[in-house]
Known about the structure:
Elements: H1 2-16, H2 21-35, H3 41-53, H4 58-73, H5 78-107
Helix pairs in contact: 1-2, 1-4, 1-5, 2-4, 3-4, 4-5
Amino acid sequence: MIFFQLFYTFLFIGAFTFGGGYSMIALIEGEVVDHWGWMTSAEFTDLLAISQMTPGPVGINTATYAGYASVLDAGYPVWIAVVGALVASLSVIVIPVLLVLSVSRWLQ
């Protein structure tokens, strides 16, 4: 059940945020901390610091670690938490990738 929640939540975040990874942070915090309660505000602050230190887009890094931490905190083993990280990471980028593909197809 948590994987469906992760997929839906991060699909929503990827579809309705414009402006890059930093614009996603407030929405991710609202969903992960306030709505679902997967982590505390202090844990999210640590997550954000780690996401900014690692290479890559901060929005995808935040989604990856949030997916991992939420599944791990739900009591699942580490290898299933890695699946949660993959679900969150892929679902946050699926809508933007489809939009870019459709626009590039249209421009050709």
